[in-house]
Specification:
Strand content: 35-45%
Distance between the termini: 29 Å
Number of strands: 27
Largest sheet: 9 strands, mixed
Protein name: Copper amine oxidase
Keywords: Signal
Helix content: 10-25%
Oligomer: single chain
Structural class: mainly beta
Organism: Sphingobacterium alkalisoli
Radius of gyration: 23 Å
Number of helices: 5
Length: about 400
C-alpha cells in the first residue's frame, strides 16, 4: 500500500482481503481481527503467517542512541572465505583492558583442491611484563556449513556465558591460543568458524586470526606466517573499533492508540555503522552491519485503550539477493522482575524465509497499575542474516 487510501470502497476491498489497514484518515496502521487472532494463538518465538500485512514503511519509533562503556572490539570477517592455505586474516594490537573478539571466518581453500584447515585465534604479549589473560565471556561453535544455526547458537551461548577462574599467564613475547577448542577443530571446506569472546588483559597485546594446517598449532603457525591478507572492505569487514555497546531508548512513549510502529536499528542509515581502523597502518574500517555490537534497548509504551503489544520481526530483505533468503536471530529479553530470557528466534524452526512469515518475539500486556511500561531487551545484529531486522510493535486486543 504505497499511497493514501481514503475512500470507503477501497477500505472495504482491503478488509475483504484481510490486509493491514489505514485508519484515522490515514494516520496509522492497525492489524485486523484475523491477524490479531493469529498473533494471540502463536507460540512465543514461533512463526506466524500474516497475509497482506508485512511492509517496510510502518511508522518508525524515534530513538536516542548512546555509546555505552564497553570493551575494545575486534571483528574478523574480511576475508570471510580464507582462500590461502597458510595466512593471517586479521592482526590488531590492543591496549590493556577489556576486549571483545568476534571470529567469523570460513575455510575457502579450493585451489588446487579442497583441503582441511584449522582457523584459530591467538594472542601475543607485546608488553614488558607477564600478562594476565582472563576470559569473561566465551562462545565457541563447532565448524559447520549451517551458518544460521552457528550464528543463533553462538549468540545464545554468549548471552548465557558466565566464565570464572579462567586466567592464564602469558610471558613477554609468548603467544597462546585464545580458544583451545579452535586448536582442536578440523575445518572442512566451506565450514564456518564462529567464536565470540570477551576477556581482560593487563599488558599490550597483538591479536591474530589465522588459517593453517590442522596438525600445526596456532602459535607455531604465527611464527611461520609473515604476511597478512590485504583487506578488501568486503563482507562485514575487519578491524579494531572503539564502540561495542549502545543504549537505545525510544524518544516518545509508544501508545497503542497510534497503531503499528517499528524500531529499526543496525540499518546503516538512521543507525550508522561503527568505524575503526585496520592493522598497523590504521586503514579505515567499518563494520557493515554492526555485527557483534550489543544494543541494550528500552521501549517505553502505554495503552490508553486497554490493548497489548505484540513484538514481531521478519526478513525484510528476502527479495534483495540470493544471500538474503533466510533470517534467524537471538535476543536477550528482560522481564519486569529482572529475570532474563534468552530466546533463539524462531524457536520452532531454524529460520524465517520471507513474507508473509513473521516471528513472534513476545506479547506484552498492559499493567493497570502503571501508566507507562517498558519493553527491555538486548539485540545484536544476527550473523549470517541480512539487515535490518525490523522490530515491529503491533497493538492487539487481549481476549
Amino acid at each position: 500500500m504505497n499511497k493514501l487510501i481514503s475512500s470507503f470502497f477501497a477500505i472495504a476491498i482491503l478488509l475483504s482481503q484481510g490486509a493491514a489497514l489505514y485508519a484515522q484518515n490515514g494516520s496509522r496502521y492497525v492489524a485486523n481481527s484475523e491477524q490479531q487472532d493469529l498473533l494471540r494463538k502463536t507460540k512465543i518465538g514461533g512463526i506466524v503467517v500474516l497475509d497482506d500485512f508485512l511492509r517496510t514503511d510502518f511508522p518508525k519509533v524515534d530513538f536516542t542512541k548512546t555509546v555505552m562503556p564497553g570493551p575494545q572490539f575486534i571483528i574478523s570477517d574480511d576475508p570471510e572465505y580464507i582462500r590461502v592455505p597458510e595466512a593471517v586474516a586479521l592482526q590488531e594490537e590492543v591496549v590493556p583492558g577489556s576486549v571483545r573478539l568476534y571470529v567469523y571466518n570460513v575455510n575457502g581453500v579450493k585451489e588446487p583442491q579442497k583441503i582441511r584447515r584449522k582457523i584459530t585465534a591467538v594472542i601475543k604479549n607485546i608488553g614488558k611484563e607477564n600478562m594476565s589473560f582472563r576470559m569473561l565471556k566465551y562462545s565457541s561453535q563447532k565448524p559447520s556449513t549451517n551458518y544460521f544455526q552457528v550464528g543463533k547458537q553462538g549468540l545464545a551461548d554468549y548471552f548465557a556465558s558466565q566464565v570464572s577462574n579462567d586466567v592464564r599467564i602469558v610471558k613477554p613475547g609468548e603467544v597462546i591460543a585464545i580458544d583451545p577448542k579452535l586448536e582442536t577443530n578440523v575445518v572442512e571446506y566451506d565450514e564456518l568458524v564462529h567464536g565470540f569472546y570477551e576477556f581482560v588483559i593487563d599488558q599490550p597485546a597483538q591479536i591474530s586470526v589465522l588459517q593453517t594446517a590442522p596438525e600445526r598449532s596456532g602459535p607455531v603457525a604465527l611464527s611461520k606466517i609473515t604476511q597478512v591478507i590485504p583487506h578488501s572492505h568486503g563482507n562485514a569487514g575487519r578491524g579494531l573499533f572503539g564502540v561495542s555497546n549502545y543504549a537505545i531508548k525510544s524518544t516518545d512513549v509508544v501508545d497503542t492508540k497510534n497503531g503499528i510502529s517499528q524500531l529499526i536499528i543496525a540499518d546503516g542509515k538512521d543507525d550508522p555503522w561503527i568505524e575503526g581502523t585496520i592493522g598497523a597502518d590504521k586503514a579505515y574500517a567499518r563494520n557493515a552491519g554492526n555485527y557483534g555490537v550489543l544494543y541494550d534497548t528500552k521501549i517505553k509504551w502505554k495503552s490508553t485503550e486497554g490493548k497489548g503489544l505484540a513484538l514481531i520481526t521478519w526478513n525484510s530483505r528476502s527479495a534483495d539477493n540470493q544471500w538474503c533468503g533466510g533470517m534467524g536471530l537471538t535476543m536477550e529479553l528482560f522481564e519486569d522482575n529482572g529475570n532474563k530470557v534468552i530466546r533463539q528466534l524462531p524457536t520452532d524452526t531454524l529460520i524465517t524465509k520471507a513474507a508473509p512469515e513473521a516471528i513472534l518475539i513476545g506479547i506484552f500486556n498492559p499493567d493497570s497499575t502503571k501508566e507507562i511500561q517498558e519493553i527491555h531487551f538486548t539485540y545484536s545484529p544476527p550473523g549470517a542474516s541480512c539487515l535490518p531486522t525490523p522490530l515491529i510493535l503491533v497493538p492487539i486486543d487481549l481476549k
